[in-house]
Amino acid sequence: MPEETNAQLDTDESVPPAEPKAAYMPLDRAIETQADLSAEINALGEAYARALKEGSPAETQPRLDYPPYRSSILRHPTKSLHHADPETIELYSPAFGHQDVHALESDLTIQHNGEPQGERIIVAGRVLDGDGRPVAGQLVEIWQANSSGRYIHKRDQHPAPIDPNFTGIGRCITGPDGSYRFTTIKPGAYPWKNHLNAWRPAHIHFSLFGTEFTQRIITQMYFPGDQLFPLDPIYQTIVDQDARDRLVATYDHSLTEPEWALGYNWDIVLTGPKRTWTENEALGAAGDEE
């Protein structure tokens, strides 16, 4: 969740234009409402729609600086990246083999002595390259809030209950067909301090590793029909609707297990023009051509 600071802001002149007040103020001093943020989001969406009509290319990845997402300027490099030799890092980083990831780690509902609270769900899909070929043997990790929208983290202190039987972390290895599968609890929405009455849609974080731990990408999966989509600046940083839709899972009745759990399908595409959005894009739009 976004960091808070205790900076005291006395005048408008003390705030750079790209860093509005709500990003720094605690909740009781926030001055921007959801209506303010929604107006900005709508204006940016309309400008993007006009640009498309005028022949501009589609933006399939999020904008690094997206003003309604107040801390976006703080969440990416602002200077040129430098190549570094990864060998030293790889010598000291953890490295998991197939034998180290147990099949039971993909079931987040059996990690404690009791049943977690909330709606049990199954999330499954495939990891694919840009040509639709399966990517096998990849480590996939997930983490998420519990059914009340609370993370097991000391910095998450909003007044929602902690579930003693749910940690919200799991992992698995993709199969020969690129498939993954998790059993978990549907997460709840939660508040964050971007602006007054800001809430994040329910989502699950995904992390995927390549052949080394230095090859990591992170993304988020959302649930269909969430009413918070148009209100969330993070989801809206992707201004193209088709690209946003690729972050939303689909309900899959074939995955649903009778009297047990609802099923959701979500494929992750690593390259190409239809790739899934990931955080910390080093290549930006240029990566779409890979």
Determine Rg (CA atoms, Å). Answer: 20 Å
Enumerate the spans where pLDDT stays under 50 for 5 or more consecutive residues. Answer: 1-25, 281-290
Helix content: 10-25%
Order of helices and strands: HHEEEEEEEEHHEEE
Beta strands, count: 11
Q: Give the DSSP E fraction (strand runs of 2 or more residues).
A: 15-25%
What structural category characterises the helix and strand content?
alpha+beta
Compute the number of helices: 4
Describe what you observe in this structure:
The chain has helices at 34-53, 87-92, 233-236, 241-245, and strands at residues 120-128, 139-144, 169-173, 179-185, 190-192, 198-200, 203-209, 216-222, 250-251, 262-265, 268-269. By secondary structure, the protein is an alpha+beta fold. The strands form 3 sheets. Strands 1, 4, 9, 10 and 11 form a 5-stranded mixed sheet that branches. Strand 5 (190-192) and strand 6 (198-200) form a beta hairpin. The protein starts with 33 loop residues before the first helix and ends in a 21-residue tail after the last strand.
